[in-house]
Amino acid sequence: MTHGMHTDTHPPYLDGDRDWRDSATRYALLPLRVFLGVTFIYAGLDKLTDSAFLKDSGSGSVGDMMRAVHDSAAIPQMVDMALESPVGFGYAIAFGELAVGIGTLLGLLARLAALGGALISLSLWLTVSWASDPYYYGNDLPYLMAWLPLVLAGAPMFSVDAAIRARRRQRLGGYR
To answer: Is 44 in contact with 98 (CB distance < 8 Å)?
Structure first.
């Protein structure tokens, strides 16, 4: 086995000359960030504007939904906590989705926003969509997986975080 053997024929760039592959790599997470940001903003607004959702009971209410998934949830104790105040839980999810969506779309505290999105998706997977059979019919697990690259990488391009980092570097004289 030879260590250090390079199979890539693309030479490293030292002078800033970049080809399309370098650009594609730099912008690779941008479509995912836009999709998740817009989707979570929409989901939060949809919940806040749905008169049936933010109720303790009734067709389409968060309370009835939580009671319906209680017995099939992976962690029914999470559903029990939501059922202590279904309306409060509904507002928490809606405002959480809005905060996550806005943070992700703007790239403001992007890793924290992505972690919030991952936690929302994880909690919904363990409760609401856990009983999906086969498992890939439920949408919360793919959303959880989609959040993970943004948790790891943040929002390095077209973001408030990137602007803050650039300004900090400029203030420190190019270091850091």
So the answer is: yes
* Higher per-residue confidence, 81 vs 11: 81
Name the pLDDT band for 23 (thresholds 50, 70, 90): confident
Decide: residue 97, CB within 10 A, 0-12 exposed, 13-18 middle, 19+ buried.
Answer: buried
Q: Which of 114, 125, 120, 116 shows the shortest CA–CA distance to 149?
A: 114
| CB-CB contact of 127 with 62 (8 Å) | no
**pTM of the predicted model over 0.70:** yes
| Residue 125 in this model has a pLDDT that exceeds 90 | yes
CA of 111: how far to CAs of 25, 92, 127, 155, in Å?
19, 20, 24, 7
Tokens of 68: 């319906």
Relative orientation angle of helices 110-127 and 30-49, to the nearest 10 degrees: 60
Amino acid at 42: Y
Residues 87 and 66 sit within 8 Å (Cβ to Cβ): no
